[in-house]
Structure formats: structure tokens, C-alpha cells
UniProtKB/TrEMBL annotation:
Domain of life: Bacteria
Organism (species): Streptomyces nondiastaticus
Pfam family name, one: Phage_holin_4_2
Positions of transmembrane segments: 38-57, 64-88, 100-121
Protein name (database record): Phage holin family protein
Matching InterPro entries: Phage_holin_4_2 (IPR007165)
Keyword field: Membrane, Transmembrane, Transmembrane helix
Amino acid sequence: MKNFVVKTIANAAALAVAIWLLKGITLSGENTARKVLTLILVALVFGVVNFIVKPVVKLLSFPLFILTLGLITLVINALMLLLTSWIAKELGLAFHVDGFWNALVGGVIISVVAWAMHVILPDEKD
């Protein structure tokens, strides 16, 4: 359970940085509390997408992974972010990614920040 909370916090922080840095990734709400709640819910959706959909997509794209020397991972991360945006819209969450290029850059930002957050935050290995 602790690991799940840590991953959700890391995803929320990474999404917040991407929203802050890119004009094409937006999160809206009436007040700060509503924005934080929306951000946490979007982080949960992003975590579920990465847990369920991403491994299947990576398995199916394995030949492309070999062919592109792993660069297809950037595209897969962008597609997962776009899928998260679509699911958030369907759930009524005020989160939107505007286009593939914003998703690509956002995916890179989220990957770097999430990695840094996992280094900083404790996990269950202790």
C-alpha cells in the first residue's frame, strides 16, 4: 500500500511539473483544492494506464523497440499521456493534453521527474 501511495505522489508531482512547463497540458479547477484533487485523480488514472495498457503496448511494439533502439518508448509514453487525457475527459476531470507533440515532451518531463521523485521518496524495500 505504501508503494502505491509513493507512486501516486510521484506521478502527481511529475504531472504537475509537466503542466507547469507546457502550455499544451492543462489542468483547471475552481480553486486550489479542486485542482489538487483533480491532479491526484489524474495521477491515479495515469498509474492505472501505465500498469494495465503500457505493458501490452510495449510487448506488441517489441520489434519497433529493437528497430529504433528504444526510441519508440518516447512515442509510447506520449500515447499513454494522450490516453490518460482522454480517460480524464470521459471521467469529467479537467485535464487535457493538446496534441501529440505536447504529449511527447510531456512524457519526457514526466519520466524524468517521476524517476527523480522515486529516488527521493522512500519505498517498501526498507
